[in-house]
Design brief:
Length: 88
Amino acid sequence: MLTKRVKARIVGENKTHEKDTGSAQVQIAMTSRQIEELAAHLKKNPKDNHSRRGLLKMVSKRRKLLAYMKKHEPSLYEKLIKKLDLKK
């Protein structure tokens, strides 16, 4: 679970304008951070199948958002992929 400080930092790094909290870039960055934390949890707790299901849902959500960005904003998509160090 992400704290308010961590969320605010992620939003600050990825926002496109002053009040931006829900753009695809911000959502992808937030979901990526949650995926990292949940993956670390699952390495310690390999039998936690409920969390594994949540991880798969988050990965699917991120994949859909990335597909949207690739279609509608290709230049921002490339920058975000490099910034978050994700595969294409």
